[in-house]
Amino acid sequence: MADNASIPPAAAQLPTPPDVIRCAYAELVVTDLQRSRWFYTELLGLVVTAETEDALYLRAFEEYLHHSLVIRRGPVAACAKLAYRVRTPRDLDLAEEYYRALEVPVRRVPAGTTKGIGEAVQVEDPLGFPVEFFHDAEHVERFTQRYDLHGAGAISRLDHFNVVTPDVPAARRYYEGLGFKVSEDIADSEGTVYAAWMYRKPTVHDVALTGGDGPRMHHIAFATHERSQILHLCDHLGAVRRSDHIERGPGRHGVSNAFYLYLLDPDGHRIEIYTHDYYTGDPDNPVITWDVHDNQRRDWWGNPVVPSWYANASTVLDLDGDPRPVVERRDAREAEVTIGADGFSYTRRDEVEQGFKVGHQV
Ligand code: 4SX
Ligand code: FE2
């Protein structure tokens, strides 16, 4: 068999992709900057690197690039950008050529177009997301050992993006073309794929693909060092009677094995706090495929996923700042096949195979 037998012809004809290091920052549009300031700086404890009349540039305690999150005031809540860092300045040329070959909108912007970020290539990716590639960024103080500043819920760094897209296998092929590898996915025995987790840095993911109407942004995830920091965030929210910001968890994921919590910011943007996934950096890292009916896939303890987690996600903007229309998912939806009258899930597959009626109805 030829070496490239598994490469789809379209990908084989594309130029060399840029060398993506990792997911690096996101930009969210919020409708009330002061309300969001409380959530991101007082509750989550993110550090303010810079502030303008209409935007906050935030980083976590171990980050030394200018920001990992921009919160910008705007008329409608949305995700304005998902940014990846590339290895060298030359990778910006590769990014430009790559996306021109994909025939999607591409724009090269000078340094400083986003505060603290060098020259960049902005694209509307084939999945419809506003994506930026950059190499240079302003360095700021890394607060790793500023324990005097870390609260009990200290967040260390950005971990991943999660995007909603109708056709997960097509999105997976697009990201594989860009050099990402799959760590885990969720499928059924008929071959429908419901979600996939993909990485460049050696963790479970930089981006997760969630099957649904898209393009929409499902969540942005930040990492802590300890589970206790996630539990503290829950206690903090309870103490200020803002527990309604908690959407799902805390819990242990099946996929990724990470300990998690999903919060909703004041505009409903979903933020995950995540810790303790595993190393994936060897070239033969095994892919884990979960059965969509396995009731421990999304929560290792079998707790049900709340319907809003499947249903809701943030609008994304195009490069002109206009909301992107959404394309409907045509394949089966995970919530339908696992929840309610038409759905089922099990805890012990062998008992299901033997025909016992032990399926866990959630
Ligand atoms: O819900 S899942 O256990 O599938 C999951 C969701 C695993 C890892 C994640 O980062 C996530 O958002
Ligand atoms: Fe996540």
Set out the fold topology.
Elements: H1 9-12, E1 20-30, H2 33-43, E2 47-52, E3 55-59, E4 69-73, E5 78-86, H3 90-101, E6 106-109, E7 120-124, E8 130-134, E9 157-165, H4 168-177, E10 181-187, E11 193-199, E12 207-211, E13 216-223, H5 227-239, E14 246-252, E15 259-264, E16 270-275, E17 288-291, H6 307-311, E18 314-315, H7 334-338, H8 349-353
Parallel strand pairs: 1-4, 5-8, 9-12, 10-17, 13-16
Antiparallel strand pairs: 1-5, 2-3, 3-4, 6-7, 7-8, 9-13, 10-11, 11-12, 13-18, 14-15, 15-16
Pfam family, one: Glyoxalase
Keywords: Aromatic hydrocarbons catabolism, Dioxygenase, Iron, Metal-binding, Oxidoreductase
GO molecular function, one term: ferrous iron binding
Task: Using brief descriptors, characterize the structure shown.
362 residues; 2,3-Dihydroxybiphenyl 1,2-Dioxygenase, domain 1; 3,4-dihydroxyphenylacetate 2,3-dioxygenase; ferrous iron binding; GlyoxalaseI/FosfomycinResist; 8-stranded mixed β-sheet; 18% helix; 31% strand; binds fe (ii) ion; alpha+beta; single chain; 8 helices; metal-binding; binds 3,4-dihydroxybenzenesulfonic acid; 10-stranded mixed β-sheet; Glyas_Bleomycin-R_OHBP_Dase; 2 domains
Please provide a written account of the structure:
β11 and β12 form a beta hairpin. This protein folds into two domains: 4-134, 2,3-Dihydroxybiphenyl 1,2-Dioxygenase, domain 1 (Roll); 148-353, 2,3-Dihydroxybiphenyl 1,2-Dioxygenase, domain 1, CATH 3.10.180.10. The chain is α+β, with helices and mostly antiparallel strands and 362 residues long. The longest helix is centred in the middle third of the chain and has 13 residues, at 227-239. It contains eight helices and 18 strands. The strands form two sheets. Strands 9, 10, 11, 12, 13, 14, 15, 16, 17 and 18 form a ten-stranded mixed β-sheet that branches. Strands 2-3-4-1-5-8-7-6 form an eight-stranded mixed β-sheet, covered by helices on one side. The model has no long low-confidence stretch (mean pLDDT 95). Fe (ii) ion (FE2) is lined by residues 160, 162, 208, 219, 221, 272, 274.
